[in-house]
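Re: beginner question about structure tokens

> Can someone show what the tokenized structure looks like for a real chain? I only ever see the sequence side.

Sure, here's an example I had lying around. Input first:
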Amino acid sequence: MPTFIYEAMNSVGQQVKSQIEATSSEDAIAKIRAQGEFPTKVKEKAAKKGVTPAAGRATTAGRRRAGRIPTKMLTQFTRQLSTLIDAGLPIVRSLRILEQQQKPGPMRLAIRLVAEDVEEGITLSEAMGAQSKAFNRLYCNMIRAGELGGVLDLVLRRLAEFLERTQALKRRVVGAMLYPVAVITFSVGIVMAIMIIVIPKFETIFLEMGQALPPTTEALIAISRWVQFPGFIVILAMPVVIYLVLKLLKMSPQGRYGVDAFFMNIPLFGQIIRKTAVARFSRTMGTLLGAGVPILEALNITRETAGNEVFSKAMITVHDGIREGESFAAPLRQAKIVEPMVVNMIDVGEETGKQDQMLDKIADVYDEEVQTLVDSMVSLLEPVMVIVLGLIVGFIVISLFMPMVSVLSSLSGG
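And the corresponding structure tokens:
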């Protein structure tokens, strides 16, 4: 009987490396799970027949890799694959059907490469893991959990819902911010055009008049000269410089932590970032736990996909606390990255054995709160932008017409 070497997570989340005799890899996985362990890697010690996962990875080492896939396309693919597998179609047949429906591009290439690997005997999760740019670690671990538990269709459906809700939240936030960003951009462009084109013509008129100018007019002319050079270049280069500085800072963990902590402490905007991070953390954890992924492994995946270094660092503390025997809620409360209400709901979820459902409810609540905050910020920005633009236009008008008024007054007096 062949011997299989495996790596697994035991009931307390510790990694175990051992070997077991079994007739096939599926039999080995079943025996490992019967021991109360969650296998993460299984390979035959002496491959004699067929293609083992290790051999499959070797054959794909030199193959072409697909690029990044837009979230919208990945969501549609996941939903369609879930439907086909739920209908009873084999995985390879389902992948080939979806490949034919795709236009040439990274999505079609990724599906084709995954289908070829599965045909060679590699599991779906490992085949997708080989296309790391197309399918991230969260996606692959969800698929692996579905394979091991025999509920791949349910996991794919849950994964599709996760992607759809994440995309919907992002779309709502971006859509709400589009209006104020567009207004601010056009306003800055109009003011710059006035400073570069209109003010110099008035300056020529004032010089021909030969009279002393009011302080406000002199200040306006000085600002106009600065905007013409070098202010025009500075204003245009400022967004690029800020982007490059932030990108440079985010190259190191300390820099990413500092940038994320800074943005999280900005009034109102920081609340949106914080609540968005909580919603993403809760949604990811709930999805992974609902798929049967062990909590420590789920925390590691959540930490890597958090998109926020402050939360990622806190997840390490929570992970270590659970590994030492604490509950999920206790180290999360000590980390102080979420509100007490979130900790209490997670605590209730642990006691009732419905932790994944409670995390999903937390994500739903925070999604709504994020939308409310975004709407409030947009509503607040509208009058602020009107007032600021009114002050700028009023300053320009008064500064330009005060010399005219003084000239008219002198002429009428003479």
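Each token stands for a local structural state, so reading them left to right follows the chain. Strands lie at 3-9, 15-21, 38-44.
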